[in-house]
Amino acid sequence: MKNNELLIEKAYLNGEFVDSYKTFDVINPATGETIGKVPDLPMDKVEQAIADAEAVWPAWRKTLVGERSKLLYKLYELTLANREKLAEIMTLESGKPLQESLGEVDYSASFLIWFAEEAKRSYGDTIPSLQNNNRLMTIKQSVGVVAAITPWNFPLAMLTRKVAPALAAGCPIVLKPAEETPLTAIAFAKLSQEAGIPAGVFQVLTSTDAKGVGKLFATSERVRKITFTGSTAVGRSLMEQAASTIKRASMELGGNAPFLVFDDADIEKAVQGAVTAKFRNAGQVCVSVNRFYIQDSVYDQFAEALAKAVEQLKVGNGMDERVKVGPLINKKGLEKVQAHVDDAVKRGAEVRVGGKALEGTFFQPTVLTSMPNDSLIAKEETFGPVCALFRFSSEEEGIRLANDTPFGLAAYFYSENVRRCQRVSEQLESGMVGVNTGMISDASAPFGGVNQSGVGREGSHHGLDEFLEIKYIAYGE
Ligand code: ADP
């Protein structure tokens, strides 16, 4: 860690790294050690940052789109050139295995290059008039100052997914990273400075007063758009507050993803997909599977194969290359996972593998069978390394159980029958469906949820529209 010059214990305000404030500790969840201290900014600095962002908007939105594209491309190159350094910081502050952090850097960079290209394609329309000889057209323009709040589970990807399209669209953006993982965001700010992103266009505000900063972001008249990834409870509160200024809002919130295995599935592939979709980041992913629904006739076969695969997963400090499952982010996360497992067992579930907390905030990779439908896991996101196997008999019942939730982010299912694949994917109430795959994230695809999992889409060409307003212009004869 000594030679990692991207580990900077400062906030990034209006083009400068600043540190003359009281600080808070950033903790390595694998060891409990403090790995850095960053400024706990007072609220007037947050206000100042928003004002500075507003001040640079007129110049930034006027830059040629080709110029913004080049800056994003430069930032993409710098991100990849610093892959190991960024990944190291990410593993130290989030606990995720180093291989996953390296993968996250690549995934994060893919948003930078994607939006470097999409920036150039924010096309408007020309429209035939119905009424007279007016000539009608639309153009797309930046919405204005964007405020972003990001979570700890993907310290870099959740950031580039917002920052890249905002910059591409011509919006300045102020970001408050999660207090658990601010160092990755600060490292990225350093790269943005090196890339030549002008002062005030991208700022990183570190604070422990999430509620206060959130309120300021949501209610400030200077901020035209708020973009948030995190829990549904916080998203709901931010939307309520944002209503006071009729602010545009994108919300990527919690999920409760179902994973159905039908009797005509390739069980071996389904097990592989299940492990991918469940154990990435120790299950602390909003698209992690929370509920496995397995059809009666293949239930035992699937449960046995999954239990075998899960027993192989090595738990430990993410800096150890053999480790597949790191710690949970903190004690609160661990307690929730334990409570969900205990509740399931109390209601009659059987522990096939794991089921217990280990030292620190580590939890054993776990497989539970005979899950009752009234358990907590059926209703709430567990956010931990627990596979809970429910049973269903008919396709209709499987779909009904999968949809029995107010959330609708991701859903997965396995079947080799193409007609069933079409039928089921159309009936699942979620923003994203993985058919015979446990891996759905892709910068070129629209990521987002329905119902209480959120509003808006990130990534893809839709992700750029979230930061653009449509202006209609009529030219008379
Ligand atoms: P999690 O439970 O995954 O930490 P949160 O929704 O609490 O999810 O956190 C996601 C982000 O929201 C973090 O940056 C956190 O600091 C921030 N946050 C937490 N509470 C609030 C709040 N009341 N208002 C605004 N932001 C908040």
From TrEMBL:
Q: Which Gene3D superfamilies did the record assign?
A: Aldehyde Dehydrogenase, Chain A, domain 1, Aldehyde Dehydrogenase, Chain A, domain 2
Highest rank taxon of the organism: Bacteria
> Which GO molecular function annotation, any one, does this entry have?
oxidoreductase activity
Presence of keyword Oxidoreductase = yes
Does this UniProt record's set of keywords contain DNA-binding?
no
What keywords tag this UniProt record?
Oxidoreductase
Q: Which residues form the active site?
A: E252
InterPro entries noted in UniProt = Ald_DH/histidinol_DH, Ald_DH_C, Ald_DH_CS_GLU, Ald_DH_N, Aldehyde_DH_dom, Aldehyde_DH_Superfamily, Succ_semiAld_DH
Record-stated family = Belongs to the aldehyde dehydrogenase family.
Q: What PANTHER family would the database entry show?
A: SUCCINATE-SEMIALDEHYDE DEHYDROGENASE, MITOCHONDRIAL
Please give the name of this protein.
NAD-dependent succinate-semialdehyde dehydrogenase
